[in-house]
């Protein structure tokens, strides 16, 4: 089995194992229980309080505040607000960890052309003889899907064959036909392109989806499979680029979890017109979190009997938010050193009370960041607090909340716990669960003041845990 297939298979096996047992994981050796800112934003910031109110409203509309749900597709004229991720999001990005190159990184191989198999779709290397009939049948007469492509729409079957032959023979790309596994038909194509192994960079582009493929699980899974393949080979950066006037493509990039990086003005001339190019990317340190979002969205339990999504990919991919007045962002693998330092400072004092190592202090945080939602609150002094949410189909658990001793007294813990409530509601949960060592009576009392009640105790080999739950007045709709 090839490396990418093994990586995807391991993720699926891990999901199944987590559904079977919420026990021995995360803690090794310890069993534990289950571009530039939009001008309007700049003006609003200069106008003080009224500007803050406007920014907060726009943040909610873009899915950056409160419970974090996006209000819906961006309206014309306001898409730039989403793309720039607003002043708060840019500030958070600047506070993130410095990107460095691992000393043992080696340039990956050029991606071999091979079949990438998913749950709903299969990506097959373009074969004009095998794929032409299906793709021509799906795209014939759909000239609008070529509006933003460098090529003109093929006028006939022979013209489309010439296009597919060009793809199959073009050096420097890996073109795929997108197969819908529901009926086995090819309904579109895309490329891995701009492949620069010496820098660890690859791009998904030339995406041409038939109307029957657009806005489907197949279309989304194809982007996931491309990312999983490239990162499994050792690539560091996954790119998405599009014409700045192509609003649907920019919204799709954000939905998939790509981060907007800026605008290349007068970048290209396409079909006799100027093209300003919007750049987006996902880094290797960010991919485990993005992969988690893809997998949660693609899971069968996220769809009803009619195939309608229960929760959006945008909700799963929310990169930043407000926890009350506190700005928070999702962690990546690059944050692990700071998280470990925070956990050691926050949890070591508890160990004189409980007499054993604190589970959150000795966890495998590469696994925690990859499988859970980890939210960070920062200031000029560094990492102030961290919230870890263990989100399963049947339960929403606050796995840990930690505040740096230097940040005590600022009510960060309460702000993060309130954000956990909002996040649970936004994702459709009716309650929040947590557990802590039964000897930490002051901590248990604090949770009780926040609305939690002890439901039961669990005796492990070396400690006793108190399980607590907070029920919401009304289940989320």
From TrEMBL:
It comes from the Bacteria. Keywords: Transferase. Pfam families: Acetyltransf_3, Acetyltransf_7. CDD domains: NAT_SF. One of its GO terms (molecular function) is protein N-terminal-serine acetyltransferase activity. Residues 133-276, 326-473 form the N-acetyltransferase domain. This is GNAT family N-acetyltransferase. It comes from Bosea caraganae.
């Amino acid at each position: 089995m090839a490396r990418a297939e093994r990586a995807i298979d391991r993720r699926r096996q891990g999901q199944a194992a987590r559904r079977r047992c919420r026990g021995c994981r995360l803690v090794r050796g310890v069993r534990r229980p289950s571009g530039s800112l939009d001008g309007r934003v700049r003006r609003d910031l200069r106008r003080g309080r009224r500007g803050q109110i406007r920014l907060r409203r726009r943040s909610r509309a873009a899915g950056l505040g409160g419970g974090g749900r996006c209000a819906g597709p961006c309206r014309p004229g306001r898409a730039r607000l989403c793309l720039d991720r607003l002043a708060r999001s840019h500030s958070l990005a600047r506070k993130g960890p410095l990107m460095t190159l691992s000393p043992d990184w080696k340039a990956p191989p050029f991606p071999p052309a091979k079949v990438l198999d998913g749950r709903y779709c299969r990506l097959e290397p373009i074969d004009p003889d095998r794929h032409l009939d299906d793709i021509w049948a799906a795209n014939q007469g759909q000239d609008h899907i070529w509006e933003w492509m460098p090529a003109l729409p093929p006028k006939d079957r022979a013209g489309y064959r010439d296009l597919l032959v060009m793809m199959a023979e073009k050096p420097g790309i890996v073109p795929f036909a997108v197969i819908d596994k529901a009926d086995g038909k090819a309904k579109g194509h895309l490329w891995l392109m701009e492949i620069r192994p010496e820098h660890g960079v690859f791009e998904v582009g030339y995406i041409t989806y038939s109307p029957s493929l657009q806005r489907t699980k197949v279309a989304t899974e194809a982007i996931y499979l491309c990312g999983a393949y490239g990162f499994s080979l050792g690539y560091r950066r996954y790119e998405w680029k599009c014409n700045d006037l192509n609003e649907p493509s920019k919204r799709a990039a954000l939905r998939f979890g790509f981060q907007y990086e800026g605008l290349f003005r007068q970048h290209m001339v396409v079909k006799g017109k100027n093209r300003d190019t919007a750049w987006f990317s996902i880094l290797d340190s960010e991919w485990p979190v993005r992969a988690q979002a893809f997998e949660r969205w693609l899971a069968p339990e996220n769809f009803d009997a009619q195939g309608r999504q229960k929760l959006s990919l945008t909700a799963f991919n929310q990169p930043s938010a407000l926890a009350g007045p506190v700005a928070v962002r999702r962690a990546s693998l690059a944050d692990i050193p700071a998280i470990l330092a925070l956990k050691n400072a926050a949890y070591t004092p508890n160990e004189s009370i409980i007499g054993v190592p604190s589970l959150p202090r000795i966890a495998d945080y590469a696994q925690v960041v990859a499988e859970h939602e980890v939210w960070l609150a920062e200031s000029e002094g560094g990492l102030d607090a961290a919230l870890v949410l263990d989100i399963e189909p049947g339960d929403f658990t606050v796995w840990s909340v930690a505040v740096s001793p230097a940040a005590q007294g600022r009510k960060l813990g309460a702000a993060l716990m309130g954000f956990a409530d909002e996040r649970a509601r936004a994702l459709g949960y009716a309650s929040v669960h947590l557990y802590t060592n039964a000897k930490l009576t002051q901590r248990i009392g604090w949770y009780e003041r926040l609305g939690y009640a002890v439901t039961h105790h669990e005796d492990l080999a070396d400690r006793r845990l108190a399980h607590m739950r907070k029920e919401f007045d009304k289940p989320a709709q």
